[in-house]
Write a structure and sequence with these properties.
It is built from 14 helices and 21 strands. By secondary structure, it is of the alpha/beta class. Helix 5 links the parallel strand 8 and strand 9.
Length: 482
């Protein structure tokens, strides 16, 4: 069934200056809907309304805020099958992943509902006699949230939920390629007991509405997830207004497989980490750093497992990997498959376009062999169902290769050695480290973020989110004479 989606501007659902069509990447004959594109005037109106609404929202009692966030989270979890189906239909990830994403989004809201009641300040005695100090956090103001298409509900939720929890207004610009999920989430939020204009949805292109949003002096903070070039552009625009920024960007994550690893476990972790979500995850295992002692055995199992993966329609039972999200993404992926071979890598399997019963953006998962860490396929984020095997001769070499990147989001090691696991955990230069687990997959109650070109600004998720969504006020109070 086709949807017509409008923008939520200053508390009202309104049409835009134009519309874009949204098609199912699993079946291009399936039009998910048409979605309005906001205008500059609409953006100005909603920012003006957000400033007024934020003051009112900040004055809400903590239990009232908690009730709002709990209601949003509860509805998301209750409707995970329905909204997960919509998500998979427009983004292309297998249905189980779509449902799981929506349910996890609900957990973000229920977690921050509880955090509404845990906003405790600090007290201290001054170095001056008779003076006491009170330190507490206050809302930063109006937050612009710019979210990606690969996790259209979850990534937006882990930004929106803490923003509201800590008393801010939100103006959300989602990725234009997954607007249906954005409208669905916005409808749930807008039905709650919140001031009119506190939460807004402004759909449009990054070049147009996104650029105007990050350049606006009416925005107090910007939370962005996307590519490094776009992130740098946002930072450049934000600094003109001294706007606070938080950015999660690219990655080139490595999974190190040691000579003492359980190879069946290692292959399972590599397959899930490399090809889950069609490889379109910032935490994907795009580099597999394998000890030479187990290299051949690992590769044999990995290639067999890759070839056995069922690629198909996202909503079809048994599908393990869906299509990529768009024609542009497919073209870029196939170009990287060709690039790797031109650099001297062997494409052991996959990496080609697939013809399926439904016309869509399908390709087979691919494995590169005989690669070196200086190849472009091992330096640049491909965001594709493609992974590279890099052979190393020792643990020390493996750690060196893992750390030899401009990025630093996640890394992992597969080993039965506690000593190696501990050393790796302490010396891998990434924001997230996993031991005998996939590089993809994180919890919502602890900090998430990377190093290098992967992240900039305060961490996301858990209690760490308060660093970005609040500002600290220190008050000095003189008690006076008794």
């Amino acid at each position: 069934m086709q949807e017509t989606g409008r923008n939520l501007i200053a508390g009202e659902w309104v049409s835009g200056i134009s519309e874009v069509e949204n098609r199912n990447p699993s079946d291009l004959s399936d039009v998910v809907g048409v979605f309005a594109q906001a205008s500059a005037d609409q953006l100005h109106d909603t920012l003006t309304a957000a400033a007024r609404a934020q003051t009112e929202w900040a004055a809400y009692g903590m239990e009232r805020k908690q009730g709002v966030l709990m209601a949003i989270g509860t509805e998301l979890m209750a409707r995970a099958e329905e909204l997960g189906t919509l998500l998979s239909r427009e983004e292309g990830k297998p249905l189980a992943e779509g449902k799981g994403e929506v349910f996890r989004a609900g957990q973000f809201f229920t977690y921050y509902a509880a955090e509404c009641l845990r906003q405790l300040g600090e007290n201290a005695d001054s170095v001056r006699e008779g003076v006491e100090i009170d330190v507490r956090r206050e809302p930063v103001g109006t937050v612009a949230i710019i979210s990606p298409w690969n996790f259209p509900t979850a990534t937006a939720s882990w930004k929106i939920a803490p923003a509201l929890c800590y008393g801010n207004a939100v103006v959300w610009k989602p990725a234009n390629i997954t607007p249906a999920s954005a409208v669905a989430l916005s409808e749930i939020i807008n039905r709650q007991d919140i001031p009119k204009g506190l939460f807004s949805l402004v759909m449009g292109s990054g070049r147009d509405i996104g650029q105007q949003l990050v350049e606006s002096p009416m925005v107090n903070a910007i939370s962005f997830t996307g590519s490094v070039p776009v992130g740098k552009g946002i930072a450049s625009a934000a600094i003109q207004n001294l706007t606070k920024v938080q950015m999660e960007m690219g990655s080139k994550n490595a999974l190190a497989v040691m000579d003492d690893a359980d190879l069946d476990l290692a292959v399972t972790l590599a397959l899930g980490g490399a090809f889950g979500g069609t490889g379109q995850k910032c935490t994907a295992s795009s580099r597999l750093v394998v000890h030479e002692a187990v290299h051949d055995a690992f590769v044999e199992k990995l290639v067999a497992g890759t070839q056995a993966m069922k690629v198909g329609h996202a909503l079809q039972e048994g599908t393990q990997m869906g299509p990529v999200v768009s024609q542009q993404q497919l073209d870029e992926n196939l170009a990287y498959a060709a690039l790797g071979q031109s650099e001297g890598a062997e494409l052991a399997c996959g990496g080609v376009r697939l013809e399926m019963p439904h016309e869509g953006f399908y390709m087979s998962p691919g494995v590169f062999l005989n690669t070196t860490n200086d190849m472009r396929i091992n330096r640049e984020e491909m965001f594709a169902p493609l992974t590279s095997v890099i052979k190393v001769g020792s643990y020390d070499e493996a750690l060196s290769v893992v750390n030899d990147t401009n990025f630093g989001l996640t890394s992992g090691i597969v080993t039965t050695s506690l000593a190696r696991a501990t050393h790796f955990r302490r010396n891998a230069r990434t924001g997230v480290v996993t031991v005998n687990l996939p590089t993809a997959g994180t919890d919502y109650h602890v900090p998430f973020g990377g190093r290098g070109d992967s992240s900039y600004g305060p961490r996301e998720q858990g209690k760490a989110a308060a660093e970005f969504y609040t500002t600290v006020k220190t008050a000095y109070i003189s008690a006076g004479p008794v």
